[in-house]
Amino acid sequence: MKATMTSKGQITIPVKLCKKLGLQTGSVLEFDENAQKLTAKRVLGPEVFREFAQDTSDPFAGLTVLETLDELRGPVEIP
Questions:
Q1: 57 in the same domain as 20
Q2: How far apart are CA 21 and CA 7, in angstroms?
Q3: 37-69 pLDDT, tens per residue?
Q4: Cα(17)–Cα(35) distance, integer angstroms
Q5: Could you list the residue range(s) of the whole structural domain that residue 38 is in?
Q6: 3 within domain boundaries
Q7: Which of 40, 69, 70, 78 could form a disulfide with 29 if both were Cys (CB 3.0 to 4.6 A apart)?
């Protein structure tokens, strides 16, 4: 997928990628300025953790810690 930067330094993330990553209006991305290539990760706000803590059901029952993290933040490549 490709995106073109505007003169204001803005990039439109393709809809297909937004849907795949669960990005929506107001989603915050954090960029790693030390990476060798452009990388970004979705930042979860404190409200996500409050909602998670208030839920009395256990949607992650039977999952490992890594599987739970993947569900919460999306898969991460481990070098």
A1: no
A2: 26
A3: 888 777 777 777 777 777 667 778 888 888 888
A4: 21
A5: 1-43
A6: yes
A7: 40
